[in-house]
Amino acid sequence: MTQAHTDPANSPSPQRGNMVLATLAGIVASGVGAVLYYVVCRYANIEWLVPPLLIGAMVGLAVRFAGQGRDPQFRLLAAALTVAGAMGGYFWLDYWNFTPFMLGQTIGRMLSLMSLLIYAVSAYIAYLIAARSA
Question: What is the 3-state secondary structure (H, E, C) of the chain?
Answer without folding.
Answer: CCCCCCCCCCCCCCCCCCHHHHHHHHHHHHHHHHHHHHHHHHHCCCCCCHHHHHHHHHHHHHHHHHHCCCCHHHHHHHHHHHHHHHHHHHHHHHHCCCCHHHHHHHHHHHCCHHHHHHHHHHHHHHHHHHCCCC
